[in-house]
Amino acid sequence: SSFLILLPVSVLHGALFTYGCRVFASCTTADASSVGSVYVYETAGTAVGGAAWTFLLIPYFHTWYIAAGIAGLNGLVCVLLLAPGCRTAGIRERIWGGAACMLFLAAAVSFAGPADALHRQSVKSQWHPLNIVHYENSRFSNIGVVEQDSQYTFFLDGVPHIVTPIPDILHAEEFVHIPLLAHADPAHLLILSGGAGGIINEVLKHQTTQHIAYAELDPRLIELLKKYHTPLTERELIDPRLEVSHMDGRRFLQTTEESFDIIMVGIDEPADLQSNRFFTREFFLLASQRLNEAGILVFSLPGSLTYLSEELRDLNASVYHTVQDIFPYVRVIPGDGSNLFLTSHDESIIAMDVDRFARRTVERGLDPQVLVPRHIRNKLHPGWMRWYEDFIRGRTEKRNFDFTPVGVFYSISHWNAVFSPALRGFFYRAGNIGIQHVLLGFAAAIGGILVLKRRNSLRFASGVPFVIGTTGFTGMVFDLALIFAFQAMYGYVFTWIGLLVTVFMVGSAAGAFAVTANLANIKNHRKLFVRIDLIIMAYALALPLIITAFQPLMTAPEMLQAFRAVILLLSFISGMLVGVQFPLASRLHLAERGDVSRSAGLLYGSDLLGGWIGGMAAGVILLPVLGLFGTCLTAVLLKACSFMILIPHPNTS
User: Fold this and answer.
1) pTM of the predicted model, to two decimals?
2) Which residues of 25-41 are buried (b: 16+ CB within 10 A; e: fewer)?
3) Which of 172-176, 207-211, 519-523 has the lowest mean pLDDT?
4) b/e string for 494-503 if b means 16 or more Cβ within 10 A?
């Protein structure tokens, strides 16, 4: 659906670039400098749009205001483009009248009320048949609040996050009481996200609880919980033992000097890069350092006692093997819907049985609704651990890391198998891709290129679109890798995506402008083109090394701003390397083809096609399966293929 929604504007965008080059060349000179100039204007406009989106549109306007403003701006541009070609006075007045009407219509829609009404109606239609009572974009996420019969569900980015005042009692009681009763004296607890709406309430029932640290990234979520309050959330949020911190949970762990008896991860699975950071080896190591001597880390993963798919088993196996590398004692309590993980450096979680559970329940004055003796006897049966070990036996041995987030891939694969089983074969083969397969594939490709070259069937200029396509692929890998690294480090990227893309496009415009302005002074265009290709390959190798070099330093609070500056600088350099090559490619291709619009359209199309393939491949497969290093190495190998095409024809200028 996203493809179909974006298709009309995307097709027109690509067509406008080609026509723009033709029109601009007719007004200036029909050479590569005109194509380069249009490319500079296009990337500069994208950069301005990204900055406006990040700092103006998202914070202050909703979708219909933005749509009306963009429609009015584009309509005005169309009118201004038509005006110079009209020599008849009457037609010229009509054009300017049309421009005035366009501006008036945009202003009327934006400020006279229809935009707000349209926004409310579109949100209502989007959430139908649910009763959506609040909808907004905050700095960190999209928040929706749904009400039905005084029951509120708080959605973050379209996913249910908190339900109140009647939560999932079974999940809340199992998630809280089993680990807390496994600990002799759980006084200091940490809840990482998702605590309000039931979890905190169950924790407060334990008489041993002295302090609860609750890390919830988005302050607007807590404000909305207070606005749409219920007796449950009121009890939770006013309790003096609760301390709320508005920051990423992992960042809280990195910066706090406290230690805890229980750390509870209120995130269900590594569904994306933001949530995956709580299921990686780096996180488990950090959590182990913040636990007291007999402390317990608690988290859950999707599970089932009946639907034992290979994808579900791989997801559980990857995280289980990862946490087992850090904690000597891991106990899994399987269930329908979720598997509960208890991990510790103390064997008390293994020794936890029905008698100890019952004794501590009475000692702490608990009266659970679901965890009655028969239910808990079944849950704590030692046979379940053996069942779980059989469940994951023979599945993946891959570990989940920050920069090799296979957990994300297995989560995507699992839900794809549930809702789109026709693609199971594709995901299965993609999950088994290793760097050795990539090396063999590109070795065969390079060998094929060498054979074709020996037969002299490849000419230099005919390979330029392929080179630009590989640059587009590599540029998208750079962009995604930096967004990926930022999210892995900070946990959120909602408002920063626009800024990162903006800086990338500023770099691209700067690089294209520098080369376009000096095209006439460059003596050997081909040699410079080849050198830039080599520089792109070297940069692709260096990028993961630079990012991982900063990872160990991120525990220091003073490195927060420094790393953001580094990410922005790397984004600028990435864009500049991509932008530098395009005007040179136009010069080389025009030298042989001699048609401005055809060359511009072919090269721009190759650039975008490479970027599209790079976005799909890197976002869904390469980054999750091969990780940061493997993905950048794949880009290097692809560029090596294009470099092999550039070597012959020394007389080409």
Assistant:
1) 0.85
2) beeeebbbbbbbbbbbb
3) 519-523
4) bbbbbbbbbb
Provide the β-strand partners of residue 213.
190, 243
Query: Residue 460: pLDDT above 50?
Result: no
Cα 171 to chain centroid, rounded: 28
For 37, 312, 386, 435, the CA distances from 307, given in Å and listed in that order, are: 58, 9, 18, 32
Q: Identify any residues that bridge with 471 across adjacent strands, giving them in sequence order.
A: none
Note the pLDDT tens digit of each residue in 482-515: 988 888 877 777 667 778 888 999 999 999 999 9
**Partners of 143 in the β-ladder:** 136, 156
Do 630 and 435 form a contact (C-beta atoms < 8 A)? yes
Q: 133 and 147 in contact (C-beta within 8 Å)?
A: yes
First to last CA, the chain: 45
Query: How far apart are alpha carbons 429 and 418 in whole angstroms?
Result: 17
Round to whole Å and give the CA distance between 653 and 649.
Answer: 9
Residue 221 scores a pLDDT above 50:
yes
Supply the DSSP string of 475-537, one letter for each residue.
Answer: HHHHHHHHHHHHHHHHS--TTHHHHHHHHHHHHHHHHHHHHHHTGGG-S-HHHHHHHHHHHHH
Reported confidence tier of residue 373, pLDDT bands at 50, 70, 90: confident
Distance in angstroms (rounded) separating the CA atoms of residues 9 and 29: 29
- Name residue, tokens 């699975």: 269
Q: Is the peptide bond before 650 cis (omega within 30 degrees of 0)?
A: no
Q: Is 444 exposed, middle or buried (0-12, 13-18, 19+ CB in 10 A)?
A: exposed
For CA atoms 445, 448, 454, 459, give the dihedral sign: negative
Q: Are 559 and 535 in contact (CB under 8 A)?
A: no
**Alpha helix segments (H runs only) across 128-215:** 169-182, 199-204
- The verdict on whether omega for the bond into residue 165 sits within 30 degrees of 0, i.e. cis, is yes
Rg of the chain over CA atoms, in angstroms?
A: 29
DSSP conformational letter for 166:
S
| 290 vs 332: CA distance, rounded Å | 21
Query: How does residue 95 score in pLDDT terms, banded at 50, 70 and 90?
Result: low
Average pLDDT value for residue range 418-438: 89
310: pLDDT strictly greater than 60? yes
Q: Measured between alpha carbons, how far is 87 from 325 in angstroms, rounded to an integer?
A: 78
Encode pLDDT of 1-27 as tens digits: 888 988 998 898 888 888 888 888 887
Nearest to 570 by CA among 443, 452, 641, 481: 481
Residue found under tokens 């200091």: 188
How far is the C-alpha of 68 from the C-alpha of 363, rounded, in Å? 64
pLDDT band at 650 (very low <50, low <70, confident <90, very high): very low
What DSSP designation does 325 have? Answer: T
* Strand, coil or helix: 610: helix
Burial class of residue 639 in the structure, from the number of CB atoms within 10 Å of its CB (0-12 exposed, 13-18 middle, 19+ buried) = buried
